[in-house]
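Protein Record: Sequence and Backbone Structure Tokens
======================================================
Scope: a single protein chain, as residues and as a discrete description of its fold.
Tokens: labelled as protein backbone structure tokens, with as many entries as the chain has residues.
Position: the record begins directly beneath this header, with no further notes in between.
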Amino acid sequence: MKKALKDLFGSKRALSTMAGLLVAGLAKVGLDLSDEIALGLMALVGMFVLSQGSADKSKEAVKLELAAYEKEAK
């Protein structure tokens, strides 16, 4: 459980999502943000999370390809 929480709080995607949810929640309870600003911030967070996920997926694909190449070379 402790490792899972450490991994979660070490993840850029998780932290960004939490920040976006925090901004959305604060905007609902009275933070003086216009709807346009809150929506823009949430859109930026969403774009970051999606792009970070894509980058992580690409990074994993390269690692797997490299491992297969190294295995083949032996």
About this structure: Residues 2-73 form one domain.
